[in-house]
Specification:
Layout lengths: L1 H16 L17 E7 L8 E5 L8 E12 L2 E6 L2 E5 L3 E9 L3 E8 L14 E9 H4 L7 H8 L7 E4 L1
Parallel strand pairs: 1-9
Antiparallel strand pairs: 1-8, 2-7, 3-4, 3-8, 5-6, 6-7
Length: 166
């Protein structure tokens, strides 16, 4: 009886290990599945210097998220910085623009080695971010530091960017 139970347990373990879940999505002409969002938000003590962006539909398990902060506009050209990004102040210390994400959302947040309530509003009000969702393998093969390189490689033009106000 013990042998039969052990044999059935072994067969059951082998059967369950061979199961796999495959996520399927439509990608025309084998192009990578991408989405680009532009989010404008403000940070304050009332939102704990953070903002949540919900993904609808949720990400696939093999998706990656790149997030860029609109740092400046020079001669009409946007200057985007890949996050996380640390900005240093001679009088206050260091301010971090950072994020984390799950398959359901991305949380954008500020942290610093000083009291964020003393930060100039130009760093907290109406901050703009671009969230780029790309397949993981693609993320490894592109220069992520340049949003222009990413957008060009993905063949995404500015008209395809979904704007969200939080």
């Amino acid at each position: 009886m013990k042998r039969i139970t052990l044999l059935l347990a072994f067969i059951g373990m082998m059967t369950l290990q061979s199961c796999e879940v495959t996520e399927v999505y439509d990608a025309p002409n084998n192009a990578p599945r991408t989405e680009v969002f532009e989010v404008t938000t403000s940070f304050s003590s009332s939102n704990n210097y953070s903002s949540l962006v919900v993904f609808d539909p949720p990400l696939y398990s093999n998706d990656s998220v790149l997030l860029y902060h609109l740092y400046d506009v020079v001669n009409g050209q946007d200057v985007w910085k890949l996050m996380p990004q640390t900005y240093y102040f001679s009088d206050n210390g260091a301010l971090d623009f950072n994020f984390d994400y799950t398959k359901f959302n991305a949380k954008i947040f500020l942290s610093a080695n000083f009291n964020l309530n003393t930060l100039d509003a130009s760093w907290t009000k109406n901050q703009t971010f671009r969230i780029v969702i790309i397949p993981d393998g693609f993320a490894k093969s592109v220069n992520k530091n340049s949003i222009d390189a990413v957008m060009s490689a993905l063949k995404v033009n500015s008209g395809a960017i979904k704007k969200i106000d939080l």
